[in-house]
């Protein structure tokens, strides 16, 4: 199982100081956070994609390429790549290039995002959101899987004998997660292709997450990729820790109350009761995270949001120390002990290359 962090890259005023970082400071902080994630033994760093203030990560592959040069083991991912408004040709080329730069330590999470105005900024209509996601991803798969592509669709100009360059590293495209909070069509899409499904698992009650994950698992089996238990599932979550749980609540409350996403709404206590947000001691984070298995089943990737809402870099790095030293080692052991035989490991480039090399042998023997 893989453990890591994801960032949405918000530029938010720190309520403790009344100061907001500059865009430059926030970008540099995200780079430092990624390098710290590797230092403390996490597996994954993922960044969102946004094209509007107060968010800064408009070019994820630029950021991830920089991080690739300064890390050795960290898997580099997006927590959203906008399949609806990005050109699938550019996605194919950008992420194949990143694969080569990072020696395969790359995957990608497709999503539609949660910012409606982004569609016209890139010449698209939000009413076509689901159709764009379906058509663009179908083309992206062909661009990665086929050397020469001739294609015609509804939303972009046709392609005639087109080859995307560079080709995916070792002939194996980046592993794809389809991220969604509320759209069953995206769970269906992930299942159809046999890709991973990532549920953000931050804003909604557990009953909703359970429903979405179960839909994906059932449809994964329906399309013949394996049993429901063999489907590849990832979950998000947000945590804030202090060794004393009361101190954690006291420290985090002003950040929660002023957060751009969930501030000025339900109280911190209401939100932590109704959603997976966990504010407390490392042990409380361990217990809460282990409980995700009760409704999502055995899953492959857990990403935590730790740098949202104006938290200063020093505090975020302290959170990563707690994750790496006290939380993730216990979670690795406990999830491994609970994991039945037959549940697949989290996907890696090397494992997928090996599987691709084995496939022709199995077909020959069959």
UniProtKB/TrEMBL annotation:
InterPro entries: Bact_Lucif_Oxidored, LLM_FMN-dep_put, Luciferase-like_dom, Luciferase-like_sf. CDD domains: Flavin_utilizing_monoxygenases (cd00347). Pfam families: Bac_luciferase. SUPFAM superfamilies: Bacterial luciferase-like. Coiled coil: none annotated. It comes from the Bacteria. Gene3D superfamilies: Luciferase-like domain. Residues 342-366 are annotated as: Disordered. Residues 1-294 form the Luciferase-like domain. Keywords: Monooxygenase, Oxidoreductase. This is LLM class flavin-dependent oxidoreductase.
């Amino acid at each position: 199982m893989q453990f890591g962090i994801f960032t949405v890259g918000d530029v938010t005023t720190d309520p403790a100081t009344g100061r907001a970082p500059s865009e430059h400071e926030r970008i540099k902080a995200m780079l430092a956070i990624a390098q710290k994630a590797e230092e403390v033994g996490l597996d994954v760093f993922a960044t969102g994609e946004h094209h509007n203030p107060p968010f800064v990560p408009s070019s994820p592959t630029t950021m991830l390429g920089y991080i690739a040069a300064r890390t050795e083991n960290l898997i580099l991912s997006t927590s959203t790549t906008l399949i609806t408004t990005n050109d699938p040709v550019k996605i194919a080329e950008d992420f194949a290039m990143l694969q080569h730069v990072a020696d395969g330590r790359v995957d990608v999470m497709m999503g539609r995002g949660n910012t409606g105005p982004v569609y016209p900024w890139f010449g698209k209509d939000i009413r076509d959101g689901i159709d764009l996601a379906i058509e663009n991803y179908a083309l992206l798969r062909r661009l990665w899987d086929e050397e020469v592509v001739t294609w015609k669709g509804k939303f972009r100009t046709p392609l005639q004998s087109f080859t995307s360059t560079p080709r995916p590293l070792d002939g194996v495209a980046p592993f794809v997660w389809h991220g969604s909070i509320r759209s069953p069509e995206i769970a269906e899409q992930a299942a159809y292709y046999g890709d991973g499904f990532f549920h953000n698992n931050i804003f909604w009650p557990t009953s909703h997450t359970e429903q979405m994950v179960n839909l994906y698992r059932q449809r994964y089996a329906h399309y013949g990729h394996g049993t429901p238990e063999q489907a590849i599932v990832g979950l998000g979550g947000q945590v804030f820790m202090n060794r004393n749980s009361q101190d954690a609540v006291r420290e985090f409350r002003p950040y929660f109350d002023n957060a751009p996403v969930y501030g000025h709404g339900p109280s911190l206590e209401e939100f932590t009761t109704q959603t997976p947000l966990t504010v407390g001691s490392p042990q409380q984070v361990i217990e809460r995270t282990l409980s995700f298995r009760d409704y999502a089943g055995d899953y492959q990737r857990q990403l935590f949001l730790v740098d949202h809402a104006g938290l200063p870099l020093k505090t975020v790095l302290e959170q990563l120390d707690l994750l790496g030293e006290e939380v993730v080692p216990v979670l690795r052991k406990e999830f491994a002990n609970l994991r039945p035989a037959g549940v697949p490991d989290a996907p890696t480039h090397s494992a997928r290359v090996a599987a691709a090399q084995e496939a022709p042998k199995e077909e020959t023997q069959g």
